[in-house]
Design a protein that fits this description.
Immunoglobulin-like, I20RB protein, alpha+beta, FN3_dom, interleukin-20 binding, single chain, binds 2-acetamido-2-deoxy-beta-D-glucopyranose, 29% strand, five-stranded antiparallel β-sheet
Length: 299
């Protein structure tokens, strides 16, 4: 029991230090091997609290007399978060603690409940972009840092059983996966892997691309050419008829024939005809079926 007057004396001796509460709600946010210690702010009217963070790894606990190591970047900071990524350098259990300073007053250490081991970091699937460059299947992966590798699975659509795998250890901007068959769809998914903790993320969403020169391209080409053919097939008989009309009146002596007509028959027959043989001349102008004209014209 401490008598009330003695309690006041005790508080007076301890100074104002004892009145500053230790930071609370100390927790770890750890994603993709980036670790942050956070805590609730210590609020003192009109004054800014400054925080300092220390850690203790397995080594300090077992071989260095349970000493604590200050984190320089998080010494007397005003933020309520500390980037501890560089200090968590091994896959072992760490203890962490933080205290507040307001003016000349200093709080007790507030300690993280339990331990933090980076093996518990949450891993997210990589951001990726699948590209069809002609017949090349390429993938672009997010650069997540040197600790990260990627396991990339790819397959021809409809042949999931023949999935192929590629481990990407260094992220260059674009990785070549495969050469694709024309007009086929290929799909890709990837997961991150961190060797230091021997853990993988879940797989990214599957992305599919189509190699060029496929059915759709063939279809487009076919449609365009048949439309072109229709136009030619409709105009050629008209042109041929028109040409024959002109020939009826200006057949002789040296008619300038359209190329299409020159091919099938020697023009000499036409040139030979006399003006009195107009009827005959007319008969000599052979009106070719449009397909034949087109075939000759294409040749
Ligand atoms: C700790 O967090 C809880 C819930 O997140 C909140 O209600 C509480 O006020 C926090 N404590 C401090 C000291 O900020
Ligand atoms: C270990 O810590 C204790 C108390 O904190 C101290 O007395 C002792 O000298 C330390 N030993 C070493 C080897 O630092
Ligand atoms: C935390 O520190 C790591 C390692 O130094 C660094 O890569 C990362 O960008 C930092 N994150 C933030 C948000 O400052
Ligand atoms: C990684 O974990 C797997 C099981 O998830 C295990 O089979 C393998 O041996 C481990 N590798 C290393 C290097 O610890």
């Amino acid at each position: 029991y401490i008598h009330i007057p003695y309690l006041f004396i005790l508080l007076g001796i301890l100074g104002e230090d004892a009145l500053l509460p230790a930071p609370q709600n100390i927790s770890i946010l750890s994603t993709n091997m980036k670790h942050f210690l956070t805590w609730s702010p210590v609020t003192i009217w009109g004054e800014t609290a400054r925080y300092s963070v220390e850690f203790q790894g397995e080594y300090e606990r077992e071989y260095a007399n349970e000493s604590w190591i200050p984190i320089c970047e998080c010494s007397l900071i005003t933020a309520t978060v500390c980037n501890i990524t560089d200090d968590i350098s091994a896959t072992v259990a760490y203890k962490l603690r933080v205290r507040a300073d307001v003016g000349a007053r200093r709080s007790e250490w507030g300690t993280l409940k339990g331990f933090f081991n980076r093996i518990t970091t949450s891993l997210t699937p990589p951001l990726m972009k699948v590209i069809a460059d002609g017949y090349h299947l390429l993938v672009e992966l997010e650069d997540m840092g040197p600790a990260f590798q990627f396991c990339v699975l790819y397959w021809k659509k409809g042949q999931e059983s023949r999935m192929q795998q590629k481990v990407v250890k260094e992220v260059s901007s674009v990785v070549h996966l495969d050469t694709m068959e024309a007009g086929s769809d290929y799909c890709v998914k990837a997961q991150t892997y961190v060797e230091a903790i021997n853990r993988s993320s879940s797989f990214s969403q599957t992305q599919c691309v189509r190699a060029e020169g496929g059915t759709s391209m063939w279809l487009v080409t076919a449609l365009i050419s048949s439309a072109g053919f229709a136009v030619v097939a409709l105009t050629l008989p008209f042109l041929t008829w028109k040409t024959s009309q002109i020939f009826q009146y200006s057949c002789c002596p040296v008619a300038v024939l359209p190329d299409t007509l020159k091919v099938s028959e020697p023009p000499t027959q036409l040139i030979l005809c006399g003006s009195e043989e107009a009827e005959q001349c007319d008969l000599m102008v052979r009106v070719m079926p449009s397909e034949e004209v087109l075939r000759l014209w294409i040749q």
